[in-house]
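ok so I'm stuck.
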Amino acid sequence: MTTDALLGGHDLTLHRFPLEQKNRSLQAWDAADEYLINYVLEHHNQAKRILVLNDNFGALTCALKVMSVSERHITNVNDSYVSHQACEYNLANNQINDSAVTYLDSLSEYPHNIDLILIKIPKNAGFLAHQLALLSNLTSETKVIASGKVKEIHSSTLKSFNHFLSEPTTSLAVKKARLIFSKTTAKPVASKFPVSWPLEKTEFTLTNHANVFSRDSLDIGARFFMNYLPQGKKPFKVIDLGCGNGVIGLISLDKMPNAQVTFVDESAMAVASAKENITLNLPDALERCHFVQNDCLSDFTADSADLVLCNPPFHQAQAITDHIAWQMFVQAKQVLKKGGELRIIGNRHLDYQDKLNRLFGNCKVIGNNKKFTVLSSMLRG
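replied:
not stuck anymore, here's the structure
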């Protein structure tokens, strides 16, 4: 969707991403972005070196650049491939020079020569704690301002800031958004991530970085899906789409000793976790694996895969939506060879069966329980 935003006193036209989804009713900025930008404009507009964490679709970066002081440099850190793509697009679409914007993924070290740190509070509390731990390594007395919806800022959020940074304070609520103010201390506090735990009923150990879904144990959807994965010795080309920590691809490699598996996720931490889990558990299979951070299967070669396995997410940033699942299904159809299969698991209430029937002309239930359904669609010639 295209949305016109008044941020920092400037009109901006902002898109969510990917662009083929731009006509959806989801907005590319929110009241927390607006509150944060207006506060910076009033109190910190001379800051030249700004570190921005979790800028969902580039609204913060665009506003900071358009109201820019001379020689302002922004370091944009995000775990999301889609968020970085959206930021690049929105800067270009608003004719904003991006030569002084540096993009870092969530696994990169933060720069130390920073005047101001801005955080859009992520939904994942563990990921926020990990980011705050990294900030605790920076020079002391650097101002930190975080923004989020009032309903998402809990006492535990403030405890996390207090644990890693200086004692936080909060603003009044404006349009159901709130700011948190803190400072770095230059007293490093270690992050607990990545974490590791044994995978039940196997000899494998899984490692998860901070922003990977169900990071402390196997999620119940993947646990159920593992019972319905193909096996055999055919040299299939398999894609673990939305791979998370790579557990589905890991089990597939174990069950299909001649398969080549491509692990795809838009999260840098997910792709890193998947690669570490194959390296740790099936090192001899690494030569049969590829690891790709990407917007679903965008730009993948058509007619190139025999099997796509997928546990679709139903949110993007803070928004609940099924458009990512639909994008995955459409692109899987494009990438599959004739006779290839898309096999997914989803919550029963999401009605993926109807979507797959419309898209593929067929859909078979191969497993279900009270919460989940495992579905298979074939690409017929």
